[in-house]
Amino acid sequence: MWSRGLFLAALLAIATAARAGSDAVPPEAVLGGVLSVVAGDWNGDGEVDRAVLWQPLPDEPAADLYVFLSGDGPLVVRGVAWSGRMSGTAAALEPAEGGFAVASGNQAVGRDRWLERLQVAWLDGALRVVAYAYTTHDALARTPDFACRVDFRQAAGWRNGERFAVQPGAPRLDRWDGSRIPVPCRTHGSG
In its keyword annotation, does this UniProt entry include Signal (predicted)? Predict the structure, then answer.
């Protein structure tokens, strides 16, 4: 999989990138803000690629994603996921088919629980968001009361099991801002 050296190299790269953006970021804030690391050969060139999810400020609920492809400088997606400070609320990276996933949500606090997941894969010469999922449930009922998933490669989505069409084409990760989340996945009510 990945070695301790790769992990340290990723941390150093983030520290360098963060320092370049602001002289006010102390190194301990950079290292303490690492939420998750995942590695693989996502672009198929035989070299190890890696992604690091970093929460720049502990009191801010946004996590930034840094992706390093075979020695290239980092691809940075600011505010890619919500991340809380308590157990069950921290965002994380997960291995996924052809790439990795960014998972965030609240699985621990209060009655209303939710989970959001972006699946990222190498497609058409770039890292792209190939799938999106969002679910909510009442912790007392233990069944999902809202489930929406989108497969951008198939240009299809499913809201509570009912299929709907989405704009064709998987959006590039470096341009992801959430605007491509289809309306049926944004409205959690009965409509």
Answer: yes
